[in-house]
Amino acid sequence: MDPNQWFDELSRKQTELGADRWGYWREHVLFTFDWWLLLLYFVVGWFVWWRLADKRKLTELLPLGLYVLLISLSLDMVGAELGLWDYPKMILPWGARLAVVDAVLPLFYMLVYQYTRSLRGYTAGLVGLSLLFSFVLEPFMVKVGVYRPLQWKHLFSVPGYLFVGLVSLWLSTMTVRLMKRRRPGGEWSPAE
User: Fold this and answer.
1) What residue spans define the domains of the chain?
2) What are 114-162's pLDDT values in tens digits?
3) How would DSSP label each residue in 33-69?
């Protein structure tokens, strides 16, 4: 099969899969208990974070949260595409399959960062967070039918959560440093 025909066949299958996913979501997910649970998780998570977040530190917290979100979404999509895990229940039938959980994960990382004073403290908090996510949150999500590990074990997630937190901290630290650089006239300069 030539590359154009192959690509056309892949596009056709993707369109068909998208229609099937939409139908599955509409018939078996939308407005179910699990759907409401995910929505509640998202809303309550952001509400609690907003109440607990130190608003004076938002310029440090938000870049960290953004990087956690971007890395989590990326890893989640790659893992699902590789068939390592999947999500039978989701808030929306398109995009990252469990974007609602990926959108709440940064809240935990930002709170760990806010309440720790050093890299050692942050890393210790990440270890606790990684263990909590891997051995409490993930099994709970399996039990309620939201998450289905296919070729994945919860233990494999521990270094992943640590990786996300440490890389996000490094990226956000670099971003905040760049944002603070100013030229003598007050203009921003990445070269200084």
Assistant:
1) 1-30, 31-180
2) 999 899 999 999 999 999 999 999 999 899 888 899 999 999 999 999 9
3) HHHHHHHHHHHHHHHHHHHHS-GGGHHHHHHHHHHHH
